[in-house]
Task: structure prediction
Amino acid sequence: MQKKYLTIYQDLVLKIQDNYWPKQTMLPSENELTEMYATSRETIRKALNLLAQDGYIQKIRGKGSMVIDINKFDFPVTGIVSFKELADKLNVTTKTTVHELSLSEVEPRLQNTLQLKRSDKVWTVVRSRDLDGEKVILDKDFLNEKVVPTLTKEICGDSIYSYLENELGLTISFARKEIVVEEPTEEDRQLLDLESFSNVVVIKSLVYLDDARLFQYTESRHRPDKFRFVDFARRVNE
Result:
């Protein structure tokens, strides 16, 4: 016999898929669900935890459980893909807004990260990315000025990687990536449509040229309800 929390979970999934509770609306409270399904609060919590784990709801501290968009975009973890290249594969309306483009001496916190001298200069580029009218990605890029001597807002609003490869003749080769979940910063709150989300998924990347020169550090900060971070793995027998 199937455990009761799984039966409740499946019923809740069907209701969400049938738009009984549309995205961005709140599910009934745990007490209301307890009465609705004539069960214990612990059973309801198990069902809700499974819903959150499978990407149907986002638990919001002090408010309850919000139904989120189950049609997430696949965001490749491996490989080096620009937002423009990703957007070309998605059947959605996209827009990039450049909030900052500046050139200054490298900050101490980035000096070791980018393996630079204190007198070296770094481009700082801050861009928000819209998908279907919602700001869901905040990209913060830091590029070595010795490798990238010139940048404009037009280039940043289009594709930096396209400019580097097609105009400067550089070959972008590989990256080291780290994925973490963080609480939103005040900047995240200002530049993204985060609503009541209590975390963002951050991909931190160190990007290298084909001659193994490190030229870029980037933080790509994502609203958690819009993306699946996917990878392909193959077992290698020794």
Notes: The mean pLDDT is 88. The helical segments are 4-17, 30-36, 41-53, 83-89, 108-111, 153-158, 160-166, 186-191.
